[in-house]
Each structure stands twice: as structure tokens, then as C-alpha cells.
Design goal:
With about 220 residues, the chain is α+β, with helices and mostly antiparallel strands. Helices cover about 35% and strands about 25% of the residues. It has two domains: about 130 residues, Jelly Rolls; about 80 residues, Winged helix-like DNA-binding domain superfamily/Winged helix DNA-binding domain (Arc Repressor Mutant, subunit A), CATH 1.10.10. Strands 1-8-3-6 form a four-stranded antiparallel sheet. It is globular, with a radius of gyration of 18 Å.
Length: about 220
């Protein structure tokens, strides 16, 4: 197992490299960038949450990732993407750092150790996105919803047995899970009765996620 000191500390990386950064603030449901726009920066989430989605030629939208604090996104521009292949939308009030593509590429080229850790960090995140897609293909909507809530609560990165997910709509959850809002409502009520989550019926007020919700994901 890697020692904690070898883990990629994104904030320390950004603070130590002398990169020019812009701090951008977004309201809930505000667009950060849209599919097809020019890709000229890498973004880093300081606080809040971001939904990545794609729209087909027929107008159908699919959520491909839900990201939170300490996640990078928009990194495709480092691999030659000139246009955004997805849209990014704030799901809560969100603060991000925007780093110009050329500067980010230069620092990664010049600082090999940081570059290795950044690449490992991004690979880990992309593995999670692949797992999300597998989840969509093979698991029931109940398990998908439970996993989505645990990911939103940053399960595995928090030491607290309970974590609050603030202000997310049932519409957004249904997009993440790939099911209807009525099914999301049904399972949310079920999770609440079983004590896996706590909320007052209004998701805008936030959802308290208990670690016991993991039993839904692990149950065959």
C-alpha cells in the first residue's frame, strides 16, 4: 500500500507550481462549460459539485460523471481535445479553479514527480467513471441510486459515519441513475424508512447519508 505522503495532493500541487489560476463561482444549475465549446483550460473543484453530461444528436442527455471537491475536470484539452466533448454543470453552489491549458501542460512537462502523481490521480478518477458506466449496465436502479448517493457523500474519503449531501434534486438523481423521478422517490422513501438516509422530504434542504447505505450496494 502506498504511504500517505506519496498520494497526490491536488491543492498543494496547485499552490506550489506558480500557475496562473482564476477562481470562478457558480450557482446551482449554472453551466460551467457546454459541449462543443472551446477547450482551453483544466478545472479543479474547490467546493461544491459538478455534473458532467453529454447530449446525443437526437437530444437525449446522459450523465457520465458526478464530481466533487478535489476533482479535476476538463483535462481532455491536455490530450489534444480542442472542443469540450461534454457539458459541465454545477449541482450546488460551486467554486472552481481554472488553469490555462498551456500553463498546466508546461508544469506537468517540467515537474516529473508531480506529473506522475497527477496522471495516477486522473487514472483513478477515470476508473471510477468506468465503474459508474458498468453500474448503469448491470445493476438495478435501487443499487445505482445507493451508489450515486454514496459517491456524492464522498464515501471512502470521509472519516465520519454520516455525511450530508446538500441541495440535489430528484431530477438530477434520476439522470444520474438512469431511471424515472418516481422510481427515485420510491427508493428514497425506502432508504429513509430503513434508516440509511435522513431528510425531511425536501431534497433541497440536504440529505444525510449514513454508511449503512453501503449494504444496499453489497447485497446480492
Amino acid at each position: 500500500m502506498a504511504r500517505a505522503t506519496n498520494r497526490f495532493n491536488a491543492q498543494a500541487f496547485l499552490d506550489s507550481t506558480g500557475l496562473t489560476k482564476r477562481v470562478l463561482a457558480y450557482d446551482r444549475d449554472q453551466s460551467i462549460f457546454a459541449q462543443g465549446e472551446k477547450a482551453d483550460s483544466v478545472l479543479y473543484i474547490q467546493s461544491g459539485g459538478v455534473k458532467l453530461s453529454v447530449v446525443s444528436k437526437t437530444g437525449k442527455e446522459a450523465v457520465v460523471a458526478m464530481l466533487g471537491p478535489k476533482d479535476f475536470f476538463g483535462e481532455g484539452c491536455l490530450a489534444g481535445q480542442t472542443l469540450r466533448i461534454s457539458s459541465a454543470t454545477a449541482i450546488t453552489p460551486t467554486s472552481v479553479l481554472a488553469i490555462p491549458r498551456r500553463q498546466m501542460a508546461r508544469v506537468l512537462h517540467e515537474q516529473n514527480t508531480l506529473s506522475d502523481r497527477f496522471i495516477a490521480h486522473m487514472v483513478s478518477r477515470n476508473v471510477r467513471i468506468e465503474q459508474d458506466l458498468i453500474d448503469q449496465l448491470f445493476n438495478s436502479s435501487e443499487k445505482r441510486l445507493a451508489r450515486a448517493l454514496l459517491l456524492l457523500a464522498r464515501y471512502g474519503t470521509q472519516t465520519k459515519p454520516r455525511q450530508v449531501v446538500a441541495k440535489i434534486s430528484q431530477e438530477t438523481l434520476s439522470e444520474m441513475v438512469g431511471t424515472t423521478r418516481s422510481r427515485v422517490n420510491f427508493f428514497m422513501n425506502k432508504f429513509k424508512k430503513l434508516g440509511f438516509i435522513e431528510y425531511d422530504g425536501n431534497l433541497d434542504a440536504g440529505i444525510q447519508i449514513n454508511s449503512s447505505l453501503l449494504s444496499v450496494v453489497l447485497h446480492d
